[in-house]
Design goal:
alpha+beta, 3 helices
């Protein structure tokens, strides 16, 4: 069975890396797509908040709970 990844968050490098750490602590498989760094390597720019975090679809419910707690934490 192939794992599909669903985008759960987009933000700055600091926020994405912190959330990624929380998801990994919860044993959720993740992928980070850093369009800023990729764009710089390719010779064109991207917005600073273009870093995307994807979670495995098999862990999506658990990931969404972690993401919501994180959003509440950063918005308070």
């Amino acid at each position: 069975m192939e794992i599909e990844y669903i985008k759960v968050f987009t933000g700055s490098s600091i926020l994405v890396n912190r959330l990624n750490s929380l998801l990994e602590e919860a044993n959720i498989k993740t992928i980070i797509k850093d369009r800023v760094n990729s764009g710089n390597l390719a010779g064109f720019g991207a917005l600073g908040n273009s870093i995307e975090l994807y979670a495995a679809d098999t862990d999506l419910d658990k990931a969404n709970a972690v993401v919501e707690n994180f959003k509440n934490e950063i918005n308070s």
